Amino acid sequence: MTAADIVRERAGADPIDTGLILGSGLGHIAGKIGGVTIPYSDLPGFPPAGVSGHVPQLAIGELEGVRVAVLGGRAHYYEHGDPTVMRPAIETLKDLGVGAVLLTNAAGSLRTNVAPGDVMLIADHINFSGLNPLIGEATDARFVNMVDAYDPGIRSDLQRAATEEGIALIEGTYAWYSGPSFETPAEIRALGILGADAVGMSTVPEVILARFFGMKVAGLSVVTNMAAGLSSEAISHEHTKAMAPLGAAKLETILRRFLASRSHTATKS
């Protein structure tokens, strides 16, 4: 029995419109679904999310009238040395009929006008690690077009949702750094020259995989700190978890407004 079969058995076979993958300190949002919760350990291929601040559960239910699948945590490259670690989970979302995936993360800001507690809409990314979850894929499908990987239509809808809620949502470029150590100030200066606006240790492999499986993608970064060398604050994972709730409320508000609009559009059509 596949992971998708188990989900259908426990949560019903109705198609799921949107998938959400939650980052460090944001897993509590999965608890707002009020549907069926399935531990990753019950789902074949799903990774153990071993980082504190992540909740290794898949929640299936409705949020603002939209049927969603919410991954309360993710596994990272730095935990396993494997950029494909999230492939079974992403493929399960596809098998469940998910058409759009929203990825969230905690990130460090390289911009003085994007501060801790802010949310940044990802417009593009820089794969600073050079790793790729499609290395070893045997078919020509591995040659994924990454132009507009972050779907312009969904980004526009998220911007509209933020504006309607009075929340500033700056767009920027996210850089993936493999971790688990934080970046050095010199690496941050290099990323700034390359055009990065925020930096984190996740998301990019999942975006590549979601595009590989034909799903639309959007990404949102909750800024938890200024990147190394840009402030006097001490950067740590504990600091990230402590600061994530500052932006989590804004993130949830944007997501709820976005999904409500998505539900309204689907009802009209």
What does this structure look like?
This protein is of the alpha/beta class and 269 residues long. It has one domain (3-15, 22-98, 105-268): 3-Layer(aba) Sandwich (Rossmann fold). It is 32% helix and 23% strand. It is built from seven helices and nine strands, in the order αββββααββαβαβαβα. The chain has helices at 3-11, 77-80, 87-95, 152-164, 185-194, 204-212, 237-268; strands at 18-21, 36-39, 57-63, 66-71, 100-109, 119-126, 169-176, 198-200, 216-226. β7, α5 (185-194) and β8 form a beta-alpha-beta unit. α4 packs across α7. It starts with a helix and ends with a helix. The mean pLDDT is 91.
Summary of the model, kept short:
This protein has 269 residues and is an alpha/beta fold. The protein contains seven helices and nine strands.
